[in-house]
Specification:
This protein has three helices and no strands. With about 130 residues, the protein is an all-alpha fold. Helix 2 runs antiparallel to helix 3.
Length: about 130
C-alpha cells in the first residue's frame, strides 16, 4: 500500500513538473546588452577609488600607485571602446541631452534661486524628471 502511494505521489510530482504551461512561466528579464560593460566600468571606478584611498593612507608607494592607476585607466579606456563598438554594431546613436535647469522642480514646480540636487519642498531629485 505504501509503495503504491509513493509511486502515485512520484508520478503526480513528475507530471506537474513536465506539464508546465508556457503561460505559467515568468516573462524573461530583459538585460541590456551593455550591462556587462557597465558592471565592468563600475568595478574599475571602484578599484580606482580604492587605489587612491590606499595611496592616501600610505599603503602604496608613488611608483606603485602610478603604475596601478595607469593600468586601470588603460582597462577603462578598453571598456569604453567596447561600449562605443557595441553602440555602433547595434546602431545606437550616442545621445547627448542638454542639461535642464535644476532650479525648477520637475515634480512640484517649486522655484529656487540656484540649482539644487534635491527639491527643498518635496525632497525629490531635481534631475531630469525622474
Amino acid at each position: 500500500m505504501i509503495i503504491v502511494f509513493a509511486a502515485l505521489l512520484i508520478a503526480v510530482a513528475v507530471a506537474l513538473v513536465v506539464i508546465v504551461r508556457p503561460a505559467d512561466l515568468a516573462a524573461p528579464i530583459e538585460v541590456s546588452p551593455f550591462q556587462h560593460l557597465d558592471d565592468r566600468k563600475a568595478a574599475i571606478y571602484d578599484s580606482l577609488r580604492d587605489l587612491q584611498f590606499e595611496f592616501r593612507v600610505g599603503k602604496l608607494s608613488d611608483e606603485d600607485y602610478q603604475k596601478s592607476k595607469t593600468e586601470l585607466q588603460a582597462e577603462l579606456s578598453r571598456v569604453m571602446a567596447d561600449v562605443d563598438k557595441l553602440k555602433q554594431e547595434l546602431g545606437v546613436a550616442a545621445t547627448v541631452t542638454a542639461a535642464k535647469p535644476r532650479n525648477v522642480c520637475p515634480h512640484c514646480g517649486a522655484k529656487f534661486e540656484k540649482a539644487l540636487k534635491f527639491c527643498g519642498e518635496c525632497g525629490k531629485s531635481m534631475g531630469a524628471g525622474v
